[in-house]
Structure formats: C-alpha cells, structure tokens
Amino acid sequence: MRAVVTGATGLIGRELTRQLLVRGDDVIPVSRNGGSLPAGPRVQAVDLERASMPRELLAGVDTLYHLAGVAHQQAREARYQRLNVDATVTLAREALSAGVRTFVFVSSVKAMGPARDERPRDESDLSHCVDAYGASKRAAEAALCELLDGGPMRLVIIRPALVYGGPLRGNLRWMRLAARLGLPRPPERGGRSMIGLADLVDLLCRLPREPWSDDAASSPLIVTDGECYSSQRIYDSMRIAGGRSPRRGRGSLVFWWLAALGLDVLLRQRPGTHFRKLFGWERYTSRRLLALGDWRPRETLESTVGGETGAPR
C-alpha cells in the first residue's frame, strides 16, 4: 500500500509512519516544515494552510491519512477555519482528483461538544461546541461527508479520545507532578475516556485493509480503550510508576479546586477550566467500532505509564 501521512512529525503521525513502514508500506510523510524521522523517507514540507498538496505526492496513493491541523493552542478562530476546515476540504478534493482510494480523517471527540452528564456518549450524542477547536473539527467532518458522499473515494472519520502513550502534556503532566510532589490524593470524582497510542495507530493501519471499513465510510467512529479514568486513578498510576506506594484516603475537594484555579491563573485560562477537566465527566463508547470488526484495544494507562504517558486530542 502507498500512503501519505500529513502531520507526520506529530505524536500520532510519527508512530503511524513508523508502523506503516514496519508493515511494508510505501509511506510519504508530510508536515508543515518538513524535517526527518528516526527512520524512513524524508518528510516532505507542505504548508497546507497556504499551499496545495503537490500532485506528484498523491500519484498512485491508496490511502491519505490526514492528521495535520491546529490543536489546542490558543489560536484565533479564523486559523482553525483555514487549517482545520478549509485546508482539509481542499486536500480531500485534491486526493479525489488524484484517484486516492481512501481518505482517513483523524478528528476528535471534541467535535461532539461538551458532555451533558456522566453517561458514555456514542457518535450521535452531540451538543453545541463551545470552543473553536471542536467546532472546526465538526465543520470539517460535515464538509467532508458532503463532498465525498457516494463518490469513488472512501471516507473514514476517526474520533479518538485523549491519547496516552507519548510525551506527557496537559493535565496528565500536571497529575504526574502532583504525584511526585506528594500532593493530597484527589477525591474519587469524575472520569474520562482515553485511548493508547499503539492501539489507535494499529486501528489506523488496519482501516484500508479491513473489509468492514466500507461499513464505516462517511460516519465517524469513536475510539477509546473502554476504561474510565478518574483523576484519582491517574494519580495512583503516576505514583506507582514513580516507585511510590498508592496513598490511602483522599484530599479535600476544596484543595484541588484551589490548585486547579492556580493553574487557570498561571496559564491564563477561564476560572474553573482545569477543575472541570480534572473532575468533570467526559466518557465515550466505541461500541459501534467494536461491532464492525475484530479490532480490540490492548492497552490501559497503567500498562503504559512506566515511561511518558500521554498527549491530548
């Protein structure tokens, strides 16, 4: 199989490129600034926000994996529109014109809007997007479905939950710091879904090869490991990974509210932002994906927490 991977120097893109090469595929990695990877071909420099994908890079391509985009930086809304929506649709048109067979769009559960309660959500359980990132991902999904519905190029949309298995970022990094400093154990409150990097990449590698992926065309698929991770569970995992015994009892919710508020001030976020992330509910179900074929997640946070443990989607 010949594949193009955009965003190839990012967390998921690097591992996807590596795994495709291991499987014997011909891979063309692409990123905004080019560069190199530990092994494999040179990364092609294409700034999709300002330029089209060179047609020669799409010649003979079976699958285009589109991972490039603006993630959780505090970008202007217009930039999310240009790169996450407009550039994605332009790339899909170019792939369609070049005869690419499958377009895999790595979206995000953030496209579904915030959760209303603690119930695990399926693909149809949408709410109003309150941030530009989630809104841009939902708009890109809708535009791709409209453009490619019934056409010759198959569209597969994947909505991963928070991804662990790479360098620590976001609240996972703060929770590791809390565990190392010996801060009080978080209360058992809230929970979220996540997915291991290796499991997500295994699924992406399988998609063009699996006959069941025809049934997934043009309808998003949520990807999680099936677990529910509270801040307390993450904290305990980080302590064990650091060679410390799990703490008994739990800290005061007021303490953690104040600590989260401190992060809001430090990072110039709206008050309550980090507390909601740490103790709110963000659960999803991969029931539809699991019913389609034999892919199954094999990792949990605890099984990968020995090294660096996560990056947000």
The share of residues in helices is: 25-40%
Query: Which term fits the overall shape?
Result: globular
The end-to-end distance, rounded to whole angstroms, is 27 Å
The residue ranges in which pLDDT falls below 50 over 5 or more consecutive positions are 307-313
- Total beta-strand segments: 11
- What is the CATH architecture annotation of the domain at 2-165 and 195-224 and 285-298? 3-Layer(aba) Sandwich
Q: Structural class, judged by helices and strands?
A: alpha/beta
User: What is the count of DSSP helices, taking H or I runs of 4+ residues?
Assistant: 11
Can you describe what's shown?
This protein has 313 residues and is α/β, with parallel strands linked by helices. The protein has a domain at 2-165 and 195-224 and 285-298: Rossmann fold (3-Layer(aba) Sandwich), CATH 3.40.50. The chain is 38% helix and 13% strand. The chain contains 11 helices and 11 strands. It has a 7-stranded parallel β-sheet, sandwiched between helices. Helix 3 (77-98) runs parallel beside helix 4, helix 5 (170-181) packs across helix 7 and helix 8 crosses helix 9. The longest helix has 22 residues, at 77-98. It is globular.
Concise description?
Helices cover 38% and strands 13% of the residues.
SSE arrangement:
Elements lengths: L1 E5 L4 H12 L3 E6 L12 E2 L9 H4 L4 E4 L10 H22 L3 E5 L25 H17 L5 E7 L1 E3 L5 H12 L9 E2 L1 E3 H10 L14 E3 L7 H11 L11 H14 L6 H7 L1 E2 L4 H6 L8 H4 L9
Parallel strand pairs: 1-2, 1-4, 2-3, 4-5, 5-6, 6-10, 7-9, 8-11
Helix pairs in contact: 1-6, 3-4, 5-7, 8-9
